Amino acid sequence: MTDRETSRLIAWSNELRGAHARLRAALEIARTAAQDDVESLSATSDLLLYCRGFCAALDEHHRGEDRALFPAIEAEHPELAPVLRKLEQDHSMIDFLLSSLNAAVEQRASAEEVDRHLEGVNAIMESHFAYEERQLLKVLDTLALRDDPRTVLGSL
Fold this sequence. Notes:
Blueprint (H helix, E strand, L loop, with lengths): L2 H38 L4 H32 L4 H26 L4 H30 L8 H5 L3
Helix pairs in contact: 1-2, 1-4, 2-3, 3-4
């Protein structure tokens, strides 16, 4: 295996960590916008923009994992099927939470209520990311997946 092939294979674990870091940062921006709204007692366009942007980015990330990353892992490591089903189940739960957050934003709920939704998403997302990284980073170091990381892990 050449150095270029090795670095490309190892990059999947780095790509996942990087995607998670960017999603954490996007959530923090949305939470800051919600906290700013609590202080001003009004829903701002920034809050709407950041919450919708975060929801879209996290949804895109999970859809890419379900569509491309997890099947590639399962093809090379069928023993990880139960882990992948758990992660897919988490994706479904997070999707429900994002739908609830989006509904609150659409209905121009109070900033406090939006922040409660964001806190719930944050708690589940952090637990999910930690589990995913514990279970998959070593596998991702050697995964032979040739897709574009932005297609697989999201464009954020």
